[in-house]
Amino acid sequence: MPPPADIVKVAIEWPGAYPKLMEIDQKKPLSAIIKEVCDGWSLPNHEYYALQHADSSNFYITEKNRNEIKNGTILRLTKSPAQNAQQLHERIQSSSMDAKLEALKDLASLSRDVTFAQEFINLDGISLLTQMVESGTERYQKLQKIMKPCFGDMLSFTLTAFVELMDHGIVSWDTFSVAFIKKIASFVNKSAIDISILQRSLAILESMVLNSHDLYQKVAQEITIGQLIPHLQGSDQEIQTYTIAVINALFLKAPDDRRQEMANILAQKQLRSIILTHVIRAQRAINNEMAHQLYVLQVLTFNLLEDRMMTKMDPQDQAQRDIIFELRRIAFDAESEPNNSSGSMEKRKSMYTRDYKKLGFINHVNPAMDFTQTPPGMLALDNMLYFAKHHQDAYIRIVLENSSREDKHECPFGRSSIELTKMLCEILKVGELPSETCNDFHPMFFTHDRSFEEFFCICIQLLNKTWKEMRATSEDFNKVMQVVKEQVMRALTTKPSSLDQFKSKLQNLSYTEILKIRQSERMNQEDFQSRPILELKEKIQPEILELIKQQRLNRLVEGTCFRKLNARRRQDKFWYCRLSPNHKVLHYGDLEESPQGEVPHDSLQDKLPVADIKAVVTGKDCPHMKEKGALKQNKEVLELAFSILYDSNCQLNFIAPDKHEYCIWTDGLNALLGKDMMSDLTRNDLDTLLSMEIKLRLLDLENIQIPDAPPPIPKEPSNYDFVYDCN
């Protein structure tokens, strides 16, 4: 008979004794189990002891998490969290430097556990650590020269413990003094400081800014962009990442009226060119976290355009009307007209109306009315003026070229610029908060101080070129805009490293090329509607679905590395999950870092029998997403979340690294449960494979012999003179 579901077999260690194998009844109180273990080793005062995982996590077993114990788990009998917290609280106040250092090292390790953290915080441990940072460093300042390594390690462990304790969200960030903030800021402002101290100081400042409005103001007074810039010019990518994270946090939390001022300071300090030189074009790969921080900086920079994008033009504002006059002046170089007589006034109005029509405005009499729609509002006019002033030859050529065409074939520059600005804002999601998981930054936007305006200038010339290639008329305006959007989107997906490279990509995506791509995609997704073809599709669909199912299960057997998201996104913690080859058990466990390749089953200590799975839920139905659904910035995380429900009130929570892995896992788990695979990926794969299979079966192969074996591989050529590097 199989053992009862509430009984788990574990091994328990105790220093100096042989490990003990025992069965734990999950229905018994945890205190009774600990007493039983202590009695077995004749240890008195069982209330002073606790059980913890014997793996690298060393997390305590509590009534809340005891259901995570699986058969074969190795546990360790150790001091209770309260005892450990009390002893460490005393040890870190020791007068002995060595004892103090060892205690802080233990504290930094144990603080990752929320159970221990709660006990240590209850002893006012956070206040003790902040006092040590504020005054303790000064106390040992004299010893710094002779004991520099010890001093650095001590401060590093103190700050590490502080960060870990605060990560649990038990204590509010609003409780910290100005003296503590000044001390942390001083570590960042020092030119020569231990890397680990600098790292943790930057992490603390970022958390302060993100979690408290009051602390944002205090940190902003202590830290300037000029003091952060030198950390970006070093070679340590992790320090660079933390530095950009602090800049992003200050940018994100700045009041609306301060953001533009901060952007001006960033421009003065040449932040963009420093990031381009020392980060993007450095001779090393950009890791995921750095990519995320660059993406956030890109989003926050473009969001500065939101104010202009949502500002309507005031037709009565003379300064704004002067911009339109300037556009006309540059295009037609009109000489100033005498304005003394009513006759000349009428003549000038008539001339202006004619010129505004040539400029492509919808309202020829009062073009200011064209800019009353938001978005794009005044941003469109800003872009047009920038193009006219900085790319004057191209601007004049486009305007004059179109004004000389027949009315029905002219590309209206004004209307095109307004719609294009609106489209570019949609593509770059101007005004939206940055996503927590997105790494989609574009290097080319870091190559120019006015990157959005230059982006517009390239795209407006593309629009004019595409208009001519399509031989479009005013009725085709929306069709042209759709083609231009497709050209821009396809060019952006290649991640060009510069604006010139982006322009080059667009040159290769002419209207003819877009038609070829569309035709190719149409052929690949062709849907034959005749009755025999539909019957054939119906017949072979189960085979294709079975093939997709096997592919999904094979991917689950390979496994995937998932990331644990916590309050501070940057502190990546990973875990791995994979299906056993016989498709009966899910193996999973924590990892110290993202793995290279597959992780073997025997290194994953936790198991979940597939037979125990009750259901798979996604999105808002996931237990770990219940509180996050309403937050705008968690929308993307919500779309990647799924959970496995098993036993009573037990779940295994996932956040997929991307949409593809999300589809693979939800499909695979549904296949294991005998349910339909409903993801978008399955629909696309089914359409593609069905289309290919039907085309293969409809090939005219009569009188054509298909060999049983593949053809032999030809011999190597005598030389390779014909090979050349096309790059």
Radius of gyration: 33 Å
Number of separate structural domains: 4
Strand order of the largest sheet: 2-1-4-3
Q: How many strand segments?
A: 11
The general outline is globular
Count every helix, treating DSSP H or I runs of 4 or more residues as helices. Answer: 28
Overall description:
With 727 residues, the protein is an alpha+beta fold. The chain folds into four domains: 7-79, Phosphatidylinositol 3-kinase Catalytic Subunit, Chain A, domain 1 (Ubiquitin-like (UB roll)), CATH 3.10.20; 118-149 and 158-303, Leucine-rich Repeat Variant (Alpha Horseshoe), CATH 1.25.10; 310-334 and 345-521, no CATH class; 541-683, PH-domain like, CATH 2.30.29. Helix content is 53%, strand content 9%. It has helices at residues 30-40, 81-91, 97-110, 114-122, 125-139, 148-167, 178-189, 195-211, 213-222, 225-232, 237-253, 256-268, 271-280, 288-302, 306-309, 318-332, 342-358, 378-390, 392-403, 413-427, 451-470, 477-493, 499-508, 511-524, 531-558, 635-639, 659-672, 680-697, and strands at 7-13, 20-25, 49-53, 74-79, 560-564, 573-579, 585-591, 606-609, 613-618, 641-646, 650-655. It has a four-stranded mixed β-sheet. A hairpin with an 8-residue loop joins strand 5 and strand 6. Helix 5 (125-139) packs antiparallel against helix 6 and helix 25 crosses helix 28. Mean pLDDT is 86; it is low at 143-147, 334-342 and 628-633.
